[in-house]
Amino acid sequence: AWQYLYVAILIFMLIATFFYLLNTINRQNKLATMRKAFVNNMTHELKTPISTVMAAVESIQRYGAKDDKERLDKYLKISKIELEHLSLMIERVLNFDTAETNGIQLVKSNFDIVKTVESCIESSKVGLLKQVDFEVHSTLDNPIIYADESHIKSVLRNLLDNAIKYSNSPVHITINLDQEKDNVILKIKDNGIGIPKEHLSDVFDMFFRVPSGHLHNVKGFGLGLSYVKQVVEQHGGSVSINSEVDKYSVFVISIPNKKI
Ligand code: ADP
């Protein structure tokens, strides 16, 4: 009887190993496909602003725009917006890369989170092609938090940019800041396309983008939310989503902040 037991255990272990390997291979394949999509996306996204700036510069040089003040201004403005966009993209990929290799190193200080939200809103307004309005509500008695200001800014920029990207014009974004026990709760709500229930937990995965035909003329690398999650968790906080397709998405961030 013992022999049977051994054989049974052996067979069980073999089957378990087989499924484990299958699962690993599947995951690796999925990751490889997603990485490929990422490189494609990135090449495409870097090319767009570069060719726009190139066209603007050529117009200035060759087609006499430098003698026409109005056109010159217009081309310079376009170039500036595109270069800002390019530098933001590069910063994100670099941020992400450092985070992946070294983990995120937090440099904490005391800062006013409401002011930071407002300044992020101002910078996300640059070069908007849609009509977007923002509403900020804070019930915080004391808006000073102890956290990494620069990473929190990137988190906010990522969430605001997504809210704009994944909503049709006119976009309405509401930001709420509240204190719940020892945490500051930050909610960013949009009136966008929403996220299907089955993908709510995937969107925080590296390279993941909700598969959808019409959506993916929207640019992106699928890195933003995984970075957001890393930063927030590194602060000892958490992120969650609430969403209804074609109606809204709310991203909720909780950051520990002991009331003194
Ligand atoms: P991306 O660069 O693709 O925007 P993210 O990691 O920021 O990457 O987001 C992952 C995916 O989650 C997006 O591709 C999109 O499908 C979905 N998503 C993120 N934010 C929103 C939002 N506010 N509304 C609807 N879908 C969103």
TrEMBL record:
> What's a GO cellular component annotated to this UniProt protein?
plasma membrane
The Histidine kinase domain, residue ranges:
41-259
A single Gene Ontology biological process assigned to it is: cellular response to phosphate starvation
According to the UniProt entry, what is the EC number of this protein?
2.7.13.3
Q: What class of enzyme is it?
A: transferase
Segments spanning the bilayer are 1-22
Write out the catalysed reaction: ATP + protein L-histidine = ADP + protein N-phospho-L-histidine
Molecular functions per Gene Ontology? phosphoprotein phosphatase activity; phosphorelay sensor kinase activity
Which UniProt keywords are present, listed alphabetically? Kinase, Membrane, Phosphoprotein, Transferase, Transmembrane, Transmembrane helix, Two-component regulatory system
Q: Which domain of life is it from?
A: Bacteria
Name of the protein in question: histidine kinase
* Organism the protein comes from: Sphingobacterium hungaricum
